[in-house]
Amino acid sequence: MASxxxxxxxxxxxxxxxxxxxxxxxxxxxxxxxxLLATICVAIAGFVFDISGSEWCVVIILVALIWAxxxxxxxxxxxxxxxxxxxxxTARIVKDISAGAVxxxxxxxxxxxxxIFLPKIxxxx
Length: 125
Hints:
By secondary structure, the protein is mainly α. The protein has helices spanning 2-28, 30-48, 53-83, 89-122. Helix 3 (53-83) packs antiparallel against helix 4 (89-122). It is flat. 10% of the residues are buried.
């Protein structure tokens, strides 16, 4: 029984680390706060326009993709900044590529949101 309790404690501790990471991401990164606002707006729009189950799945996957890519980007940037205290061309390239990955995900999310929501918005007029 004690072994199972220890396993549960480890599991809950790992979840608390993950939640701490998400909170740190939102507190420290302006782009994460923008993603949070966009996430809230998209969720509200999903309810207002009564999107289908498959549309919700697309929205959820894309929101998760954006958040994960922003988290990876932030982790890469922080690690790069830690390793390179002075300007380094390779560090710049690494950070630019990482930011580019977030941008690619954001473009995909905007395009899918347009496909899902624009017809519903146009139907109002």
